[in-house]
Design a protein that fits this description.
Length: 465
């Protein structure tokens, strides 16, 4: 059996590739496949996920895809595709096909056929449970995705990984024989059978004659949707612009020549102390900052796709990035000659206190600006203290935010030197038939809008201080 020859992987790209082999085999069998009825419901063409844009093996001669690929350079789509290890997954996919898949599949199953199967797996498969793993589930994959979804799918993940039983089974015993000696449907006579189902659960009322939407994930950004599913949502509130800590340090290196940037260890030490201080609570009152959801992680990540160094769709800076920038801005107040590469305890304590003063100054100024808009602003009480330290640091932070955003803008898209208005004109001239290019430019425009909105907010703060 083919299944016995496929090396299984529990999750990630390895699981997708293994499932792609199985799907390729079934597609090649056509009507002879036991899944033929389901296979007929799948798209007959390769799903145009961004990973495959410009790939001739996947999409043939496709000027639209090639142009779209050039446009996503430096975008969040680019970061998403390269993943945590900053590698192009197409290298691994091609390597897997030539070294493994091609030897298991019929000769008629070319790399193009395999990439079509991969595109279907990427855009439709999901993790079912510990036994089935990543799976294609008929009917469950028929629903489109939106943020305000009507339904979601539920499976009991914690089943026996050897036989799939949700109830007690022989594999729960320490003296259990190997899985190959056990029938797959073994069930203890003392435990009632539990249906092996994937349940569709309704979240809210569904009106008659309207499309029913599912969710592919609670926080799917457009970059993720385009990379792995081939579509985007209008005004996706889950969009973020992220940086690795090393990227931020590199971007600010030229902007902060007079002092050293904090080491990662020093930054994390100050961050931990500040987050447990009363001063950090004031940050929740700032309209320019937000706290990213850690999605159950015990500690924040400062690199990769889950980085907390980010700006959200409302152009708000994460508090984690704000702390880093504020430490950078404060170094001129704390021993500028040696920088913060090796903090001593008193430096950390002074920094935590200074962070509290800076955020208090910032929130006070934000409130004043909001009240001025309503024409009812009282005289502002400065939180800077006698020497104005907090104000000076806050102004430097605003400058660093501006610099960080501008340097990111300078790397996004095919023509980063053009203005947003000029890019909008290019977008308007792209024919509707060039869907991939339009999606790519729309992503560039969305990311620039976020970064420029962030710049505008911090410039307003700086100019009115």
């Amino acid at each position: 059996m083919l299944a016995d020859k496929i090396s299984l992987a529990p999750y990630g790209l390895g699981a997708q590739l293994a499932l792609s082999v199985a799907l390729s085999c079934e597609l090649e069998q056509g009507e002879a496949s036991r899944w033929y009825g389901y296979l007929q419901s799948l798209p007959s063409e390769t799903v145009p996920i961004a990973l495959l844009w410009g790939d001739r093996d996947a999409l043939g001669s496709d000027p639209d895809g090639e142009d779209a690929r050039a446009w996503i350079t430096g975008t969040e789509i680019d970061r998403t595709l390269r993943g945590e290890d900053n590698q192009d997954p197409m290298n691994e996919i091609r390597g897997y096909y030539h070294s493994i898949a091609a030897h298991l599949l019929p000769a008629s199953c070319t790399i193009s056929h395999f990439l079509r199967a991969y595109s279907l797996v990427s855009s439709r498969a999901f993790m079912v449970d510990a036994y089935h793993g990543l799976s294609m589930v008929p009917i469950a994959d028929a629903f489109n995705h939106i943020t305000e979804n009507h339904i979601h799918l539920e499976c009991d993940f914690d089943v026996c990984p050897l036989c799939g039983s949700f109830a007690e089974c022989t594999h729960d015993r320490e003296d259990a024989p190997p899985a190959s000696e056990e029938p797959m449907d073994w069930q203890s006579p003392s435990i009632p059978a539990v249906p092996d189902t994937c349940d569709m659960v309704v979240n809210r009322r569904i009106l008659a004659c309207c499309e029913v939407f599912n969710t592919y994930g609670a926080r799917k950004s457009n970059a993720s949707l385009l990379a792995w599913y081939g579509f985007a949502l209008d005004g996706n509130e889950n969009d973020v612009i992220g940086w690795d800590l090393s990227d931020v340090a590199q971007a600010l290196g030229g902007a902060t020549p007079s002092f050293a940037l904090p080491s990662e260890e020093s930054y994390k030490a100050v961050l931990r102390a500040w987050l447990s201080s009363l001063g950090s609570m004031v940050a929740d009152e700032s309209r320019l900052l937000y706290r990213p959801d850690l999605d159950g992680a015990e500690t924040p990540s400062f690199s990769g796709l889950s980085t907390v160094f980010c700006v959200n769709s409302d152009a708000q800076l994460s508090v984690y990035l704000w702390v880093y920038l504020t430490i950078c801005a404060a170094t001129e107040e704390l021993r500028p000659a040696r920088g913060l590469g090796g903090l001593v305890p008193e430096d950390g304590e002074r920094l935590v206190a200074l962070l509290g003063a800076v955020i208090a100054e910032q929130v006070s100024l934000e409130r004043t600006l909001e009240e001025e808009e309503l024409d009812e602003a009282p005289e502002r009480d400065s939180a800077t203290g006698v020497d104005g330290t907090a104000l000076r640091v806050m102004l430097r932070v605003a400058g660093l935010v501006d610099t960080l955003c501008q340097r990111r803008i300078s790397k996004i898209g095919k023509h980063p030197r053009l203005s947003t208005a000029q890019l909008g004109e290019i977008f308007d001239e792209i024919p509707e038939t060039h869907k991939k290019t339009r999606l790519a430019i729309a992503q560039v425009l969305a990311e620039r809008s976020i970064l420029e909105g962030c710049q505008e907010d911090w410039r307003e703060l700086r100019d009115n201080a």
